[in-house]
Q: What sequence folds into this?
């Protein structure tokens, strides 16, 4: 892509959705500058200017053009550096549709349920929310079997969109397990997802980018003390 | 694509999101069977089987493989019948990212605000919600100017993803205008969107597929009487 490529990623070290962009950039062997944002302090001018609608990370700035929303960024990276590294989206339209469908399920249904259950003060709402989270995991177990077709990843032999999407929450799940003893990914209920999670987190690209589970557990613990999680 | 194509769309006549699939199929000159679902009565076995996660329309069934979620369906149609009709997604990755970003804004921010404002019984929440809807329209006006680059559509010379996405709500806006005298698209505030709306609704493909404004107004009125809108 020539010498003049300027790639910058605005993120925070603990954000699962920023992790998606980092992994996609690594998979596609893209060099980039990383800018850590302080979302608890004041957001940078560059962030506010680059993502005026949501004012959120991640933002990818490629040759001065900003792109927001993590899955949108991952698809952009896949389409832009299409001859470098493995394809993140499958080649067949139906497989692509499935990857997008399940990624949307994770972002619009499953994770919002987990977040709502984590935030609520009502024990009833928490229990109901966690039930929804667990049902979602059973759905995702089925989805894994259908999409992976016996291969190690949702994307088959290679890490794909849905691996990056759902996989970005694995460290959070492990941190919650450490902090609360809560075991959401359970061998007896979601054996394929458990195996996939191990496979994903031990992948060379992934393990060099994911944040440390202990640090994330500490971070969540501090947020909870401040009443912000 | 050969003789063996079997394309079926499960929908309801009044659904804006079903309209997206219909328009994409028309643009790509795809013949299909349409199945009207009765969401107020009982959902068909085919719908429940084809979209077990959300149990919602639209569902596109192509050679027995179901695809759900309207924007996902539109992208699938664009990728599957890629040599037929104009491209629905732009060719450049950055333009594609913008089309996806703004479509997500419509579906995840703007329309949910409109729906919440329509449903709530609190006058305060309604007023606040409608403020968000109007602010969203100002954002969309800016987006139109940026994306269309002086051409008639968000997609440029041709109808694209964002036209199909946002355009699917135009009949609803017109029906609300008729029913409530509420004028959301206003010449003085969003002149480019007003011009675009006229252009879009008078497009040959679109005008043959959109439901009748009076029928939609009547339908919304009945829902409101039943307390369902």
A:
């Amino acid at each position: 892509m020539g010498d003049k490529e300027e790639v910058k990623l605005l993120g925070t070290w603990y954000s699962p959705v920023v992790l998606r962009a980092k992994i996609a950039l690594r998979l596609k062997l893209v060099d980039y500058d990383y800018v850590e944002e302080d979302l608890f302090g004041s957001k940078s001018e560059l962030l506010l200017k680059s993502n005026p609608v949501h004012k959120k990370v991640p933002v990818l700035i490629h040759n001065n053009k900003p792109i927001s929303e993590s899955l949108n960024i991952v698809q952009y990276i896949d389409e832009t550096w299409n001859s470098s590294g493995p394809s993140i989206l499958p080649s067949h339209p139906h497989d692509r549709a499935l990857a997008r469908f399940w990624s949307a399920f994770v972002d619009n249904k499953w994770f919002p349920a987990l977040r709502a259950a984590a935030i609520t003060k009502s024990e009833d709402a928490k229990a109901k929310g966690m039930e929804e989270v667990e049902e979602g995991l059973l759905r995702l177990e089925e989805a894994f079997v259908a999409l992976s077709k016996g291969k190690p990843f949702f994307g088959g032999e290679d890490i794909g969109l849905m691996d990056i999407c759902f996989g970005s929450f694995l460290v959070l799940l492990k941190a919650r397990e450490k902090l609360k003893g809560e075991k959401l990914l359970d061998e007896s209920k979601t054996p394929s997802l458990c195996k996939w999670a191990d496979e994903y987190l031990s992948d060379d690209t992934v393990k060099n980018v994911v944040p440390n589970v202990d640090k994330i557990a500490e971070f969540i613990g501090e947020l909870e003390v401040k009443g912000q999680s």
Notes: Chain A has a mean pLDDT of 95. The domain at 93-225 of chain A is CATH 1.20.1050.10 (Glutathione S-transferase Yfyf (Class Pi); Chain A, domain 2).
